[in-house]
């Protein structure tokens, strides 16, 4: 265990949960990780994995403050507290203010607050986490790393919606994009794995988890991405519909009498793989049913892969060609079926799948999945947003 004071505590605070990890930013070694859940409820608890052992503690109905206090005491008890040099916080929305990660100051806190109308569920929770950390870890420098900031390099033709311009001017209505920390990590990792010069590279990335998006990264910078003002836009996801005719709102209102809130809930939480399959939002369940010939699971897989391939082909317009296509996230790192279908649909861009390599890249194995004669390279990269946050934090405090 590194006893020098250079490790970073990563905090990712949601409305009722708080994920954490302690990571060495140079070696990438993770000393502990865990999550506090059901915060504010009687059943609130915190659990973690340390040296291979899983442990947990009740929080006696406590919320975020209690979780951070319990985290502090646990880190002290494990001898990890003294090795922590700074705390890096994940923040969802940085609007147009934050083009990169930064040190937490009064002004930064205010600016995150000012972005709340863009992420009304997430930013307030992120701020609660920062304040709790400031209280229980006084004296440690804090940083914020945003999901949106990597996409601030998108040109205005990529982020502008064709609606009355005053909505952008007055209220910031535009495409922002998310998963930016993952895209930054994966684009760099892919270039290292393929021995490509990042400043002269055309990389497409599909980040496929419960939320899914893809992005066009040209010379290390985001040029376009599929998520928009919110994470609802773009690809078919576990429970989100992705791209859809906006008139669905008035249609569902007229046919079923649903309110705006109800329709928003349907499109975000009851659609996607779950909506089509009527089985599950979990890709593993869908794949199993697909293998057994279940019709709706097959349709869900087909729509998921078709939309993904179509969007990736569109991303190739933003990069003006493709050196590499990287798959990441729980689905991207594990589903050889989805990767195979997508790479085969993109054969016209120069991709040729190597079936055995594709099968081999699962459960943590990274690597190339296209053949040696493929004109563009398809590969699997394990994302590591926590390490990216730790690296940003270490760079900012040094
Ligand atoms: P999050 O977006 O919450 O971080 P993850 O990146 O962990 O999510 O991805 C979760 C998704 O990955 C789920 O749909 C899950 O079914 C899928 N997944 C995990 N393992 C596999 C696997 N072996 N095969 C197919 N899908 C998988």
What is the subunit organization of this protein?
A: single chain
CATH topology-level name of the largest domain? Nucleotidyltransferase, domain 5
Given the C-alpha coordinates, what overall shape results?
Answer: globular
Q: Give me the count of strands.
A: 14
Overall mean pLDDT stands at: 97
> Rg from C-alpha positions?
21 Å
CATH superfamily of the largest domain: ATPase, nucleotide binding domain
Number of domains: 2
Helix tally equals: 15
Largest sheet composition: 8 strands, mixed
Provide the succession of SSEs: EEEEEHEEHHEHHHEEEHHHHHEHHHEEH
Strand order of the largest sheet: 5-4-3-2-1-6-8-7
Task: Classify the helix fraction into a percent range.
Answer: 25-40%
Beta-strand fraction estimate: 15-25%
What does this structure look like?
By secondary structure, the protein is an alpha/beta fold. The chain folds into 2 domains: 7-146, Nucleotidyltransferase, domain 5 (2-Layer Sandwich); 196-385, Nucleotidyltransferase, domain 5. Helix content is 39%, strand content 20%. The chain has helices at 64-77, 106-114, 122-136, 156-159, 166-171, 180-194, 248-256, 260-269, 272-277, 283-291, 295-319, 329-332, 336-345, 355-360, 385-397; strands spanning 7-13, 18-23, 30-37, 45-50, 53-58, 84-91, 102-103, 142-146, 202-208, 212-218, 221-225, 324-328, 367-368, 377-380. Strand 13 and strand 14 form a beta hairpin. The protein starts with 6 loop residues before the first strand and ends with a helix. The mean pLDDT is 97. The protein binds adenosine-5'-diphosphate. Adenosine-5'-diphosphate binds next to helix 10 and helix 12.
